[in-house]
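Message: Just now I want nothing more than another pair of eyes on a protein record. I am handing you a single protein, as its sequence and its fold in token form. As I understand it, each token names a local backbone shape. Take your time, and here it is.
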Amino acid sequence: LGVQQVTSGLNHLFGIPVNPVTMVLLIVGITSIALISVMTGINVGIKRLSQFNIILAFLLLAAIILLGPTLYILRTLFTGLGTYVMKIVPLSNWIGREDTGFFHDWTTFYWAWWIAWAPFIGTFIARISKGRTVREFVIFVLLLPTLLCLIWFSAFGGTAIHQFLAEGYTGVTENVETYTYELALFKMFEGLPWTTLLSCVAMTLTIIFFVTSSDSGSLIIDIIAAGGKVDAPVPQRVFWCTVEGLVAIALLLGGGLKALQAASLATGFPFAIVLLGMGVCVWIGLSKEVRQSE
């Protein structure tokens, strides 16, 4: 998905053709960057790249809030949060729903997507959170990222909605209607000042998010394959990072979004069972610690 968006952005800004060759070259380049990051270790490559990524993301978010409809974004944030709390139960219920196609296909896909990501992301977070308290973990891993996601969605989504409803700008909706979702972000930037700069920053962020996801996944696979050792051999790191790049190429050439949805659904169900077991283990572990502290 990230490669498709970057390729669409390059085509939109610089006329670079959107074809499998371009996408494969992008995956090879991004995997190479992830490989360098993994080889340098968690405290050098991964840490510095993640720090740069979060700074760039905050700058882009601040730019959208300041250049876009600031008051509308703030109103969207609070009204959206209230609506979410009120509607979460009925929206989670499949009875009486009219949007059956979107509800079943995309809801199932998103749940399977996050479930498939949960084991290795959870292991990675647990690894970098070693020595932290449960309170710190809940605040900085669950609550704070959720708040930042709400602000991010309100800023970008609120800006796009305001462009359509209040400004009459239809660039985003035209891409949604033609199912070219990967161009919607860049079309939204066209309705704001500094279009080219914002688009370049967004493409850079997408690439770095791809890299940080790949190198963290490779790191966890290395640790598991090495029996829990953090300093896995360099050839092993190279192997797993390369395999991830090859899987991305296979999914891309095998059908793009449809192939990704199928792969997520295939891996999501068995991982859902694993997550249930992990939840039970966490409860047992915390209960033991409470009894020991008493």
